[in-house]
Amino acid sequence: MDIARFRAMGTDVTVRVPDAHRVPDEFGKALADGVQQHIAELESILTRFQPDSALSRFNRSQGQWVHVDPRLFEVLRLADDAFAATNGWFDPFLGADIRRIGYDLSFEQLTITYRSIDVSDRIAPVDSPLALHATDCRALLLPGYEVDLGGIGKGWIVKQAAQWLEQAGLRSFICNAGGDMVCRGLNGDKPWSVGVLDPFAPKAVRLTLSVRDRAVATSGTYRRRWMTAKGPAHHLLDPFTGLPTESNVVSCTVVHADLVFAEIQAKVAILLGSDLGQTWLSQQDCDEWVLITSSREVVHQCN
């Protein structure tokens, strides 16, 4: 039973509780209003689509040490750590490149772009262009780069929303933003059932995962696509070319204790491609993962 359903972060957000749970109307409304406000507040800090957001202001401060909102600082730290841990495969410094290929509006506002997507002058950073000073939440971004928090930002927001719901007294629920979700407790007396969608028939479920007290993230090249003069483009850029990845993995789903790390691992696995992606995922700390390739092969493994 859904106790909340609304649009945020360019996607549908739902909060679901077990059908057997009877949530009083007044309590349910308070939860729905509260979680929506909480997500809206965090989105207004981390989005690159609002010129007055904390992230947009930070991107305009290139070359200067500036104080940033503590919540932005935390996500910048997580993103920078992921950049180092993945040797640049997870790259949060692609903001200018993603704008260049036409993704400069919230996805639901995109129609068609006539910008070239077959050339790029990107020089991938060897070392992080971000410096952080933790004691007073100051940060510096080198000129020539823009931060796009994208999936890691969404994952962090959903994680915060789930914590807010728990603090408000909810024990068993799913907080889901467009397929990236935190699952808490049980659905009655069973784990939650989470469907992995078929990227070639997006309304069809390819397989079902049983999830309890874990997070699930899905990344894919079949979602967030838009038209260009040369055909469809997608938002997953190869960090070393600055162009949409040509990986043979079209979808990756990761089950992890932490939604932020599930987001990172799902994205990197796609960029690495099927063979390297499988090897890499098997070495990570996730519980379970699913890869679906362009040849429609499904690889499902528990670590």
UniProtKB/TrEMBL annotation:
<feature type="binding site">
    <location>
        <position position="151"/>
    </location>
    <ligand>
        <name>Mg(2+)</name>
    </ligand>
</feature>
<keyword id="KW-0460">Magnesium</keyword>
<dbReference type="InterPro" id="IPR024932">
    <property type="entry name" value="ApbE"/>
</dbReference>
<dbReference type="Pfam" id="PF02424">
    <property type="entry name" value="ApbE"/>
</dbReference>
<keyword id="KW-0808">Transferase</keyword>
<keyword id="KW-0274">FAD</keyword>
<keyword id="KW-0479">Metal-binding</keyword>
<keyword id="KW-0449">Lipoprotein</keyword>
<comment type="similarity">
    <text>Belongs to the ApbE family.</text>
</comment>
<dbReference type="InterPro" id="IPR003374">
    <property type="entry name" value="ApbE-like_sf"/>
</dbReference>
<keyword id="KW-0285">Flavoprotein</keyword>
<dbReference type="GO" id="GO:0016740">
    <property type="term" value="F:transferase activity"/>
</dbReference>
<protein>
    <recommendedName>
        <fullName>FAD:protein FMN transferase</fullName>
        <ecNumber>2.7.1.180</ecNumber>
    </recommendedName>
</protein>
<dbReference type="GO" id="GO:0046872">
    <property type="term" value="F:metal ion binding"/>
</dbReference>
